[in-house]
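User: These chains co-purify. Model them together.
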Amino acid sequence: MKFFSNKENIIYAIQMVQRAVSMKSPLPVLTGILFECNDNMLKLTGTDTDLTISCTIPVVTEIPGAMVFPSRYITEFSRKLPDGDIEIEKIKDSNMATIRYGQSEFNINGYNADNFSIPEFQSGEIEFIISSEILKEVIKQVIFAASNDETRPVFTGILAEIEKNIMTLVATDTFRLALRKLSIDVNVENLINVIIPGKTLNETARILGSSKDITCQIGKNQILFKTDDTVILSRLINGRFPSYRQVIPENHSALVKVKLNSLLDAAERASLLVVERNPLVVFIVQDNNILINVRSENGWIREKVPAETNGEKLEIYFNVKYLCDVLRSCNYEEIYIKLTGAYTPAMVTPVTGDEFMSILVPARPARNE
Amino acid sequence: MKFFSNKENIIYAIQMVQRAVSMKSPLPVLTGILFECNDNMLKLTGTDTDLTISCTIPVVTEIPGAMVFPSRYITEFSRKLPDGDIEIEKIKDSNMATIRYGQSEFNINGYNADNFSIPEFQSGEIEFIISSEILKEVIKQVIFAASNDETRPVFTGILAEIEKNIMTLVATDTFRLALRKLSIDVNVENLINVIIPGKTLNETARILGSSKDITCQIGKNQILFKTDDTVILSRLINGRFPSYRQVIPENHSALVKVKLNSLLDAAERASLLVVERNPLVVFIVQDNNILINVRSENGWIREKVPAETNGEKLEIYFNVKYLCDVLRSCNYEEIYIKLTGAYTPAMVTPVTGDEFMSILVPARPARNE
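Assistant: Joint model of the two components:
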């Protein structure tokens, strides 16, 4: 393997794939990044076996070939390369390569490419194209509600349900739920229902910046996202996603219409006074406003937010972190908050339609403060 | 106490003083920031008793007075305030204040201002004005060489020696030394010789951005820096600074003239391969260049940097972190490196003059790699 490239391209490709590399992999070769060089193209691949990211950049190839570079060194080193041509050459019959730049060189020990196994995509059942910008937005709108608790894998994923040409994404950690619908350019006959790992969607959102559209393919146990130069392949999560429909309240006894940013600012200020073991604020629906109150040994905050309120005037306790999360996740000017009582789930929707919905389970205060 | 202000001014003043506050102070009142309001001026003060920072901003005063606000809450809260008028009022006969903004309010528990003791400056022996930009630069040039080891306080400080109108700043942790001379607008009769805590100069450099000039006063055991709105008062460090003159090499057997940035880039790349327990690189003076070589189990790097070299051709080991530190500290295009042998200190100076000088003690490699 021998090729010529430049700092910017190398850094770009490494940044794309490096987040899929697991530095803790029991297989040392998988702590590295695979470089495969062919026909004036260089393909970099990182994988933790669940998630695999590849990125292809143009290079000038002299000798095709492949080698695995240790991820940490090649990442840090590429950032410190000088501008100008970079030559990378594998030393024959070894797992070592020489990186030449200016008058200097780095001889780096790596791994044999033959030992680097890349999961392969089994042909997809469905394929569609989606705008990168929209995909980024919908991921942000639901992912906050997914759990980090690896002991219950289903809750760490995002349900993707496709019926006809509507995809519904749902995430929940049982304390809150977020749901976002969007139409896609495909029409499926049978309902598709898969659970995508949260990490996969996070990484997908991260690398979307560089591409206008992204192609998505869903297979039996895998999902694949493809931009012009980058491919993300991920396993799906096995298991049954909880039937979320039954937790969506059908009616409400109180309806609040409020500016999202005013409410978020108020909730963020209130969050300063809560303590970790009791992160609750009380949310009070009044005639022309809502109050968010919180009290601690350090003082008390009373936030008054102008709002249109209809129906019951009630008080409900929320975990203020969960309230802030849902408000930060979406970019609507005004939202509805629909309540049915102090102890039943609250629903947040945009005023403009039903594409997005979030459910917040109210908290019960330990003491009546 | 009752006054009106706005978010920007409050945030500015808090940022200025907050770094002097010790959150671990055994006196709870000193974990706070003193607010003193008088004649349409608000003075904020933070102190850990060694270092005291005050900042004064204009406000609209309704009732003069003072109170201590808990630093953590007032800092975080001020950042989340809405734009517009902010009203702060101390609640009579209490240590609580109400902060009003929009239709909302924060009632915050604080401390009695009478319990907040501020060190006072005993009149200065000498006073001079210096440009903020220059002071910032000279602090950066020497402070990296100061030690963090609190068990030897003298080495955590910067020696300031003033003779006639020349101030010499010196820092050393015994492994390296940095010295910077500058002329000041004063003429002292007797040599002045004080040790300023490194932290004081770091904080001074940090807050200099807002002011063109800074006034410096040196007292018996204190130093004071004053900008238009901010005052930094610090104790000096007691003790005898080591007599640094005797470690400055008088001659050299090898002279290297090199572009600072080329050498820094090379040293930074080489630093990637060193390990913490053996952070050494070998620095080889050759005919028209210098080599920086490093070898580890992960590979080896050979950096070749064009240089004008005169005299002995020698090899010397450096701690690469120390080499990078000195190169990063100064903003010269070209430097001289003056060497007298493989086991004697090396000297770095700008090509343009002798205002700055740094000494690097060479390292002895554990094994001959």
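The mean pLDDT of chain B is 95.
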